[in-house]
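We emphasize that the prediction below concerns an isolated chain of 315 residues; any contacts that depend on oligomerization or on bound cofactors are therefore not represented. The input was used exactly as deposited, without trimming of termini.
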Amino acid sequence: MKTVATAMLKPLALCITVTAAILCSAANADEVDDAIASFINADGFAQEDAEIVDGELVGLFSGSGAMRPDGAASPVEKALLLIDSMEAPLSRVRYMVRYGQMIQADTPLSFVTVERYNFGPIIRQQVIDAYGEENADTPDAFGVGPHVAWRIVTMPLMGQTAAVIEAARREIGDEEAEGLDCGGRGCLSYSPTPDEMQLWDEVDGPQPMETAYEESSTDDVAVPARAAAELTVAASLASNEGNFSWHGPEQPEAARGAEPFLFVTIDRDLGQDTSVDAVLGQTLLNDDAIDALWHRRAEFPGSVYWMRAATQKSR
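Result of the prediction step, given as a token string:
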């Protein structure tokens, strides 16, 4: 692997620092290199061509002028757009985004894992159990495809908030998926529901945002990337004053390396009605009283509901 710290990050640090005296040390560069290598080459992941991934992503955006149309897109948006673009379409799915970051020479590197779990076979089996196989539609009607994960490493670069510098992919088997955690519940489980997991308070949401990518599905609900982007605005990780602008989370003092501390789960069409239920959680907060903050965006065609919750630290 062509290491980022030696090939890209050190020159970038020279370009973005106020004076040439602010340089990244060799130890810091090695630490970043090691973290990227460990993240991208983790068991089961196969490294992907970052240029191909970048070309796929930029093709999802529309715009004119000299600036890249995906320049303002956040790492979370790009991860969600990427997995649906690079994989076969599925409608009944759960997404799990795990976000960590490292700071080098004032430059944030984002380490994002996005997983997509196919609930089509689960829902079809529920239909079979309730009504008999003769009354169930074909597997293709419910959605056929593997559970899959993508990883990307991004950094601000050449007019982009989140330029993809490394990428990797892996498939997740059913048995493994059943044992994985997605925001406090099994990745293939319906319970507990988001309603049961937090003491939610209804709040006013941010203003609806416009995106440079296709923001709504054919069912007239937000695509996952847009739902997540609006959640980041609600959580003060981005602003939407005029134009969307991602500034990202504060680096937690308790974070170690690139371990994730920001999580987004999105359930799409897992019930009887068309819906997108998205929850963003921030953990490892630099706060003496609050252990985690949660923001929720629940959408049905024509209606969006916003909620907020906080988990207090135990005394």
